[in-house]
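Changelog-adjacent note: as of this version, every example in the card shows the full chain rather than a window. The one below runs 294 residues end to end.
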Amino acid sequence: MLNAQLKSIKNSFLNKVLKRKGNDFAERIRNRNNEFWGIPEGKSIKAIPMNAHDPLPKWQDVKYWQRKLSNKYNARLFAQMHGCKVADLYWRGKDLNQVNFDDLPDQYVIRPTIGYGCDMVYLMDNHVNHMDNCTYTSGQIRDNLMDALQQNPNQEFLIEEFLRTEQGEYKIPVDYKIHTFNGEIAFIHLIKRLSPSKGYSTFYDVNWNQLGHLQDCYPAGTYQQAPECLNEMLEQARTLSKAYEIFVRIDFYATDKGAVFGEFTPTPAMGKNYKPEGVKILLNFWDTYCKEMV
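Full-length structure tokens:
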């Protein structure tokens, strides 16, 4: 009981110190969000698809060019440019009448190119969506996606390979959310999902030593074994982070074909729910490796 009270006092003190110094991680992320998306052309930048043959200068031809990588199709291309594995792509576009669901394998994934969280994500396995364990016909999926397009005409959808686990299973994949700073890794946030909004999380350093509970988005879980492809995952994360330059969370999956890139997240949870210990680590890495960067 006494230890819990002392920990609470320590956390409260750390929070006050960080805020008093103006070094709150959430504040930095809010500032970045305003810089990235608070101007009229901000959101239009991530809606423009890039080309696999575009040279690097074309990717970097605008201020805060990293915004282009918030488009999940662009992120795929960028990861491939840097030697990373990505899921096989079956179809991309917005004209959903062109999709012949009969030509797709029994297992496939649908996700939007713009958006966050698990909204409009389908992990289909013989007509059952692993995200909600509900059965969907191709017509129902098409209607749902068309409704989403009504809300955001700039949206596109990707239909991709359903990545199997390292054990060869089709299930909701474990997320390895790697917090990176210009080629350096602060920590790995592992999320074992049970549904789009439920699951458990644990945190590890680059040597897979378990850390404390650094963020409160999911309840604390028990220790998880390191993936077999951990070294490959960390190498790819460092490479992409160095190319991205500024702070970014890079998501990976551990699969039966190795580490596979997922997406870039420049404003994770808008910087919210990080515990004082997590904030301290993040600010230290930011000030050391990304000093004065947005």
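Structural remarks: Residues 89-161 form one domain.
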